[in-house]
Design brief:
The structure is a single chain. The chain has about 500 residues and is of the alpha/beta class. The chain folds into two domains: about 280 residues, Rossmann fold (3-Layer(aba) Sandwich), CATH 3.40.50.11930; about 190 residues, Glycogen Phosphorylase B (Rossmann fold, 3-Layer(aba) Sandwich). It has 17 helices and 15 strands. A seven-stranded parallel β-sheet has the order 3-2-1-6-7-8-9, sandwiched between helices. Strands 12-11-10-13-14-15 form a six-stranded parallel β-sheet, sandwiched between helices. It has a two-stranded antiparallel sheet with strand order 4-5. Strand 8, helix 8 and strand 9 form a beta-alpha-beta unit. Helix 1 runs antiparallel to helix 16, helix 2 packs across helix 17 and helix 6 runs parallel beside helix 7.
């Protein structure tokens, strides 16, 4: 039986979710007193198991999401635990990490936009449905994949890892499991594991879906198969309860269009530390505005546009002293993103701990640890996003949220989730501007410099609203995870 999460029927869920999120965010702020109270009885606390095979090392948004959900779990009275990839052989702060999984990147076989599959599969990885010719084609093609990433082997490896957690850690009925980064293919592995467990001790599992099913406005054939594959899997879970959640309203709508119900939840973001004071607007207008491109660039995050944008901005913005550009680049193959005439400037900056001697650039190479990454974000006066709007129609950006809670004006592409966040704040000219072509970016940056006092003030007001909504404990509450801290306090 398919088990829908959330308190509303599917046809009302998306329309009411935002109102409920805002209400819960205001009514239930994270309260340190509850966390402190529950720390005294943490040994008796139910556990919140966070499952993410994508966590293979420090840095990156997979680990950041897990860390935030763990903090939110503590606020709700849980003892968080994290099951990660076997390559992650260290602890992260005081979070207990268990290196379990031998594989990662399950979404390579997803039917969504981030996957390569075009055929439904069963829990053994065998192609089903579609035409006989297509099934035969995939059955012939699968063995040519590396053995460890063949569909049948990935499903077995993930399922075995999940079962290891459940059996060795002796799950109790009050414990909760959250699969942080789920997709349709991973749900096959989860269903396989739950069927092996049987229904004598039913589990409650929450799966967070992040990635779009299709690009643009038209439902693709693969997206329809995605819905069928998910519903087939959910129909085989027995007495276990599996709740699906989508990190944006548009993604929840995409899922609904293919027959899958998921509750829209706010993606959590880390509150900004209040160390130091912000420079005055007058002082900022007398020095370069620091434009930040945060996060390692990928194809969907504008890697292909960086070279042309840098060329257009270099003479008119960066060399004039009106702006400074701070960005992250991969440790290798960064040259392909940089115009030929600027490669020596970038190389000098990289060799000088990321700093350009003439203060035109800051170039951070590779993943940053949590402290360095947050310092990098704190340095932003303007956030610039070169994301592909087609890929972000239904997908949220954690980086954008991180800048919004800092009160940073932003420049984002139109026609996607990022520009919808501008609309929530009042549209273009409220907390930033949106563009339809990257050629508009230089002019918009000049506009931001002229409008900076008003943009900064509005962005500061909007930051407080964003932070209340995207608090991690609020995210968990919206998922329907019980608040044991409040219950324990009342019982005392």
């Amino acid at each position: 039986m398919i088990r829908h999460s959330g308190p509303h029927p599917p046809d009302l869920a998306c329309s009411l979710t935002l109102v409920l999120q805002l209400t819960l965010a205001c009514q239930h702020p994270a309260k340190k007193v509850l966390s402190d109270y529950f720390s005294m009885t943490i040994s008796n606390a139910p556990r919140l198991w966070l499952i993410d095979d994508n966590i293979v090392g420090t840095g990156g948004h997979f680990l950041e999401l897990a860390s935030l959900l763990a903090a939110g779990g503590k606020d709700l009275g849980y003892a968080p635990r994290l099951a990660v990839h076997q390559k992650f052989n260290e602890q992260h702060g005081d979070l207990i990490c268990e290196p379990i999984f031998s594989i990662h990147r399950m979404r390579r076989w997803s039917l969504g936009v981030d996957g390569t599959s075009s055929v439904k599969r069963n829990t053994q990885g065998t192609p089903i449905g579609s035409s006989r010719l297509e099934r035969v084609w995939h059955q012939l093609q699968d063995p040519f994949s590396r053995q460890n990433v063949r569909p049948e082997n990935m499903l077995k490896a993930w399922s075995d890892g999940f079962l290891q957690v459940v059996r060795q850690k002796k799950m109790r009925p009050e414990d909760r499991i959250v699969v942080n980064t789920g997709d349709d293919f991973q749900l096959l592995a989860l269903t396989r594991a739950l069927r092996q467990l049987g229904s004598d001790n039913p589990l409650t599992v929450h799966v967070i879906l992040h990635f779009a099913l299709y690009e643009g406005d038209s439902v693709s054939g693969e997206a329809k198969l995605y819905g069928e594959q998910v519903n087939d899997a959910m129909g085989m879970i027995g007495q276990h309860k599996v709740h699906l959640h989508a990190t944006t309203e548009p993604l929840a709508r995409q899922l609904e269009e293919v027959g899958v119900h998921a509750t829209a939840i706010p993606y959590p973001v880390r509150p900004r530390s209040e160390d130091g004071s912000q420079p005055s607007i007058l002082k900022m207008q007398q020095q370069p505005l620091n434009i930040v491109l945060a996060g390692l660039p990928r194809a969907e995050k504008g890697r292909g546009q960086m070279k042309s944008v840098l060329s257009e901005m270099w003479g008119s913005h960066l060399q004039t002293g009106n702006f400074r550009l701070a960005m992250q680049v991969p440790e290798k193959r960064w040259k392909r993103m940089v115009p030929l005439h600027l490669r020596s400037v970038f190389r000098n900056a990289i060799d000088n701990q990321g700093q350009d001697p003439e203060n035109r650039l800051e170039v951070q190479s590779g993943n940053l640890d949590e402290e360095s990454y947050n310092r990098f974000l704190d340095s932003a006066d303007v956030g610039l996003f070169l994301y592909n709007p087609q890929r972000y129609v239904a997908r949220c950006s954690g980086v954008l949220l991180e800048l919004l809670i800092r009160g940073v004006p932003v420049v984002v592409p139109k026609g996607c989730w990022l520009s919808e966040q501008l609309d929530l704040a009042g549209g273009d000219g409220s907390i930033g501007y949106s563009y339809t072509s990257t050629k508009q970016i230089p002019a918009l940056l000049h506009q931001i410099r002229r409008d900076y006092p008003d943009l900064s003030r509005m962005a500061g007001v909007h930051a407080e609203k964003t932070l209340r909504l995207h608090n991690a404990s609020n995210t968990l509450r919206m998922m329907g995870i019980p608040d044991h801290a409040v219950a324990a306090l009342r019982a005392s």
